Amino acid sequence: MAEVNGHRVANESLLDDEKSMLANDPGGMLRATASAGAQVRESAALAAEADLSLLADEGRPRAVVVAGIGTAGLTGNILATVAGHRCPVPIIGHRSAGIPGWVGAADVVFAVSASGRSPEALAAAEAAVRRGARLVAIGNPDTELQAMAERARSPFIPVPRRAPARASLWGLAVPVLLAARAIGLVKVNEADLAETATRLDADAERCRPGADSFVNPAKSLALGLAGSIPIVWGSSPLATVAARRFADTLAANARYPVMAGALGEAGRGRVGLLDGVFGGLAEFSRDIFADPDDEEGDAGTRLRLVLLRDGGLNPEEDADEPVAVEERRADAVQTLAERRGVRCDVLTAEGGSAVERLASLTAVPDFASLYLALAHGLDPMAVPAISEMKELSNPMPEGIQ
What's the total number of domains in the chain? Predict the structure, then answer.
């Protein structure tokens, strides 16, 4: 088994030493995450250079399938959320090899892969071409994915890989949105992207490593989550995408077990966690005279609720009632958590467009996952279990050493 480094208890002082933090981040995940605004600008420019006219010329498809895994797969959720429930075409995210059996010549398949080599994206691209569906390939240039797109005379949008996929969300998401715009599914304009990039730049500045914990929202969030079992709930479809993104980064970067989902689902049963052994039971049995830094005198690991709220309307939608329901539900959950002594962090979306609001809910959590890893002495990029799993699931053929 690979050696597991780091320490179980988070050390706040590690986040006050910028040089030490950067030394513990040799892969540059902090720097890559801070490039989110630049990713928006670069990928928008690269998408503009790609020939997407064929997509527009052939008109609206019957359905759109976004095929990818991990962060690439999340771009399908982003597209569906930005398009909104009034979108006239179903948008299906597909996170396994191949594509659904019903896909044919009337459909469009987006094959997305940060590396340009993921088996899921390659299998989807191959199946799309074989069945006569329109193909859009998005990923690292000079790879097999680009070669497949060129052989099929299909659009390819290059996304140069400079960091792991989980630090390249916006580099992958923007081309997906712009390709969907070419076939009339979303109304994302250049101003929306410019404002999104500006917001991501501003959040990167607020969350910079040199900013002290009391003024750095990402460090504050990370320290609040330290030693807890995080539950991340989104108050709307857009906020739920951000919640699932936060769960992914907390798991991959900080190695924390997380539950994430929609508040609507939580109200059907999962909100009961607030009454459970890591929620209200733990808080009510806590010794109020115990040293809070003494784990033996404490009730142990507890829940920490992160609530992502989105009171804005998707420009494609025109009904206020769903927003009112979502806001009342979010208020209720905050009240329930307060009554049980379960600590709750709230992040509220800002911005005019759906894309900018999503960015406002992902930027600080992305940095928080990195700071939580660094507080535990973990390198957020190097995840031994991921490498081991790849080795075990893809063994070398016999005779090759």
Answer: 2
In the sheet with 108-113, reading across from the earlier edge strand, the strands are 91-94, 64-67, 108-113, 134-139, 156-158
Q: Strand (E) positions, 278-361? A: 303-309, 344-348
Which residue has tokens 């600008």? 41
Name which of 168, 167, 371, 363 is nearest 254 in CA terms.
Answer: 371
CB 121, CB 157: distance < 8 Å: no
Same domain, 121 and 236: no
Residues in the chain: 401
Q: Which of 9-18, 180-189, 257-266, 308-317 comes out lowest in average pLDDT?
A: 308-317
The residue type found at 220 is S
**Is residue 396 predicted with pLDDT exceeding 50?**
no
Q: How far apart are the first and last CA of the chain?
A: 19
Structure token digits, residue 197? 């990039």
Q: Give me the torsion for CA of 17, 20, 25, 28, rounded to 10°.
A: 70
Q: Degrees (nearest 5) of the Cα angle 305, 310, 313?
A: 160
* Full domain range(s) for residue 126: 35-188
DSSP 188-256: --HHHHHHHHHHHHHHHHHT-TTS-TTT-HHHHHHHHHTTSEEEEEESSHHHHHHHHHHHHHIIIII--
DSSP characters over 345-371 = EEEE--SSSHHHHHHHHHHHHHHHHHH
Token pair 């398009």 in the structure block, residue: 83
Q: How confident is the model at residue 59 (pLDDT cuts 50, 70, 90)?
A: confident
CB 378 within 8 A of CB 6: yes
- In 3-state terms, what secondary structure has residue 7? coil
Q: What is the pTM of this model?
A: 0.91
- Whether 293 maps to a domain, the answer reads yes
> In this structure, are 233 and 160 located in the same domain?
no
Helix axes 190-206, 36-49, angle to 10 degrees: 160
Helix, strand, coil percentages (3-state) for the chain, rounded to 5, are 50, 10, 40
Structure tokens at 19: 């040089």
